[in-house]
Amino acid sequence: MGLKLGVNIDHVATLRQARYASMPDWPGAEPVLLEAANAALRGGADSITIHLREDRRHIQDRDVGVIREGAACPLNLEMGNTAEILEIAVRWKPDFVCLVPENRAEVTTEGGLDVAGQAEELRPTVARLRDCGILVSLFIDPEIEQVRASREIGGDIVELHTGAYAQASVGARETEISRLRAAAIEAQAVGLQVNAGHGITTGNVRGLFSVPHLIEFNIGHHLVSRALLIGLEQAVREMMEVMREYSGD
Question: Which of the following is catalytic: 11, 58, 161, 198?
C-alpha cells in the first residue's frame, strides 16, 4: 500500500470567505468546497481534511455537513479542544478528528499540540470521540514525550508537524529529519499510526522519504496554490506522482 494523501481544502474556503463572508450559504458563493473536494478525489486524493476553527475564518459549520454527506471519501476534521466544536464533530462523525492547537493571532497552525502538558484536558475529548467511533489523531511536534503522551491519552494516530523541516535551511534539514525519524519509530513502536503534515510541497517532499512508517501526508496550502495555475485535480496528481517513490523503509 502506497503513501496516502489527505487534501486540506481550508484555503478554498478562505477564497470564498474573501468575497462571501457575510453570506457563505448563498447558492452563488464560490469557489464551491464540494467541487474542490471532488476535484482532489479525481486527482487521486485518499481523504479530505477541513479545519473548523473557533473563529470560523474559513470553514463554516455548514461546510462540515456538506463535505461529510457529499464527498465519497473519508473526512478528517481538524479542531481545537473546545466543547462547541466537539459537539459538531459528534454530530457529523467524521472518520478522523485531528486535535490541533489554535491561536487566534496566528495565520495558520504554528506548531504541535502540547499533549504532554494538556493530557488531562484532552483525555475526555479523546474518549468522547472514540466512543462515537471516530479515530483520533494528535497533531504534535516530533518529540518522543509528545508521542508517548498521545498514546497514553488514548490517541489512535499522530500527525507529525513537518513545519520546522519545511522552513529549515538546507544545512539544518537533516536535524529535523532525525527528529521526525525518531518520533515515527517511537509512534510505530507504541501502536500509533504515523501521519505527517505542514509546509509539504512537491519541492521538499522527497526529503521526508527517509522517515519510516508514514501512512498519510496532509497537504493544503501548496496544493491550493498550485491549483490556481494548473487546477486542483492536476495539482493532486502531481503530488501523488512524487509520493509513489516512498518505500516506507
Answer: 198
Concerning whether 174 is annotated as a catalytic residue, the answer is: no
Q: Each residue of 64-118: pLDDT tens digit?
A: 999 999 999 999 999 999 999 999 999 999 999 999 998 655 555 568 999 999 9
In DSSP terms, 77 is beta-bridged to: 50, 97
Q: Is 36 helix (H, G, I), strand (E, B) or coil?
A: helix
For residue 145 the three cell numbers come to 514525550
Q: Find the angle CA(40)-CA(217)-CA(248) to the nearest 5 degrees.
A: 125
Is-catalytic flag, 51? yes
**Tens digits of per-residue pLDDT, 169-197?**
988 999 999 999 999 999 999 999 999 99
What is the arithmetic mean of pLDDT over 116-143? 98
Query: What is the 8-class DSSP label of residue 26?
Result: S
Among candidate residues 78, 102, 186, 216, the one labeled active-site is: 78
Type of residue found at 65: G
Is 78 catalytic? The answer is yes
Contacts of 56 (CB under 8 A, 6+ apart): none
Amino acid at 235: A
DSSP category for residue 104: T
Task: Note whether 7 and 45 are within 8 A (CB).
Answer: yes
Torsion of CA 36, 41, 43, 49, to 10 degrees: 70
